[in-house]
Amino acid sequence: MNPIISAASVIAAGLSIGLAAIGPGIGQGSAAAQAVEGLARQPEAEGKIRGTLLLSLAFMESLTIYGLVVALCLLFANPFAG
Amino acid sequence: MFFSLAAVEVGTHLYWSFAGFTVHGQVLLVTWLVIATILAIAVAGTLKLEQIPKGLQNFVESVFEYVAGIAKDQIGEYEYRPWIPYVGTLFLFIFVANWYGALVPWKLIELPEGELAAPTNDINTTVALSLLTSVSYFYAGLSKKGLGFFARYISPTPIFLPINILEDFTKPLSLSFRLFGNILADEIVVSVLCLLVPLFIPLPVMVLGIFASSVQALVFSTLSAAYIGESLE
Q: What is the C-alpha to C-alpha distance for residues B98 and B191, in angstroms, rounded to an integer?
């Protein structure tokens, strides 16, 4: 394998997870904050809030997972390895 | 000893040739096991139906009510009934498959190549499941509205036509990548931690993996039901 390609792939794999984690991190933080606020207002709605929060956290997490899939492609199934 | 248990294998498969196709044998083996488990529980639970359920029948009934609730929440009171089998099958298959991958110590079983794991950590399985979802929401829409179903492509204004067409491709793509990535990420994280510290440290991550994989089963079936409900309304 061309050393430049392998070096670039490793750096790109690291970057793709790191950059993909920024947005969902902010989003999950604000979602959790809103959920806590809702809980403080209405403690009796705990079950519903928890279910919705977990589901939406899973959706946000999947954005990072897309970055992870790209990183895995670059590391284990690199199309440019030639 | 521990290091051989914790070896990370990505991209190696046990290849079988079948009628001119090459298939991933380790995925098929675990898939059959998952199907057999679900079938055994379902048959054993409904073998002797009683008016007042107890034991296994009680469990099977509560599982049914849970998956029916998923379909009902997303598709709506009037249309959800024919879609319970599809949504329920998706949920149960993904759930049992993920938990088989997380709970059974597959690394003790030696294969000539590749390793046994959850079938959902292979992209082929998840792509097949999400393409089934695509086919079924097209079927749902076409069988209810006929050709009027295609009016949704220009639904708010015709300007949205390219976005609406693109959506048909991104839906199965995101569904399949989400499930595949989550399960594979769990397994890789657990394997890497086992490689570094073989004792006790990976346990919380394993528990998190069990939790996350059940949430992924819920997400996949909820989203499939939501897509079907979207094309029915």
A: 16
pTM of the model: 0.85
> Which of A64, A68, A78 to mutate: most B Cβ within 10 Å?
A68
pLDDT tens track for A19-68:
999 999 999 999 999 999 999 999 898 888 888 888 888 888 888 988 98
What kind of architecture, by CATH, is found in domain A24-76? Up-down Bundle (1.20)
Boundaries of domain holding B27: 2-232
B33-55: average pLDDT? 89
The complex scores an ipTM of 0.75
Cβ–Cβ gap A55/B222 under 8 Å: yes
Interface of B with A (CB under 8 A): 10-11, 174, 177-178, 180-182, 184-185, 212, 215-216, 218-219, 222
Q: What is the average per-residue pLDDT within B145-157?
A: 85
